[in-house]
Structures are given as structure tokens and as C-alpha cells.
Amino acid sequence: MSDSPKYSLTLCLETGIAGGSIALFDGDRLVAGHIGEGSTSRSEDLLPAVEALLREANATARDIGRIAVSLGPGSFTGLRIGIASAHGLSKALKCEVVGVPLLPAMLSLSGKDGRAAVVPVGKNDRAYLFEAVSEPRIADASEIIDIVLPAVTVIAPVELMRELRDIESEVIDTGRNLAVVVGRASDSSFASTDLSPIYLQNPARSRGLF
Q: What is the pTM of this model?
């Protein structure tokens, strides 16, 4: 009996946070995942990582039926790498591609009221989104604890667990592979064929105050 995937795979890319991550889903089942090294994603590393992931899953590029890519927020360069790669792969493989905003995808990990999602976007900035607010915002890392304190539940990647350890809110760790979060949200109402990236800039830094 073959161990090859039974259904078309969904390739998931998240390249805006730290070294990025990728994942493969067969329907709702996570097949394989990979986390990039370093502080930023690099374009020359992405396709070899995808090839290695396919080998791990005993699959080929022809088994990919859909690509889901994070739209951010995150690193400007990293997001461009992921979105351009997703677009190029979808053309080459003649498959569907959907964009998934990262913070709403993180919020969807919990069904509780009063949620907030937080991600690092650079060394000193944090992007955040409250469940009842439609637009993500950005703040200095030193301010983020006070900002998210009203939230009952805070959802964040493992990189921020130490930073958030003393808050009274429940904290949900997404783990390091945020491409898995993107994949689980790829069928949600906020996933879209519009691949416009979500770029955020700290207003204080744009005015040259830091």
C-alpha cells in the first residue's frame, strides 16, 4: 500500500515572522512542517525547503493543489518573498493560491471572547489585533503588555512567551510554525485571492523618534 497523499496537498507559507515556516496539509491533516533558521526569511532558502518538505511527505510538486500564504503583518522583505513565491508556484503548478491575514488566523485558534493576537515585527515592534477591531495595529515592544492587558486571552508565537509570562490573561502559544496556523485558517471567511500584503510601520519610528 502506498504512503503517498490521497488528496491534493495545500502548501502553506509564512515568511514574515523570524526565519519563516512552511507546512503541508492533506485536507485538514498536517502532513509535514519546517521552520526556517535565523531572524529573517531568505528567498534562496524557501524553494529548497519546500522540496525537502515534499520529500518528507513522500509527495511531489504535482500533488500540490493549493497554496496558502501569510499576508502579514511581518517583515517587509519576508512578506514579499512569500507572496512572490506563492504567486510564482501557483502559476507553475496551475493551482489555486489564497492569502491569509496572520493575526485573524491566530485569533481563530480560540473561540473565547476577549481575544488578542500579537506577533513580533522586527526587534522592537509588536503587531496586535483585538477580536472586536477590524484593523491590526503596531506598538513598541515596551508598551505591548499594557496594551493587551484588557484581553482575556492573548495568542502569540513562542518567541513572545517570555515577554508575556507575567500578564494575568490566559496566553495561548501558537508554536514556532506559523505556517500551520495559516493552513488551518485557509478555508476561513477572511482568506482571499487578494494577495496584497499587510505592512505596518510604527508611527514613532517613521517620524525618526527612535
A: 0.91
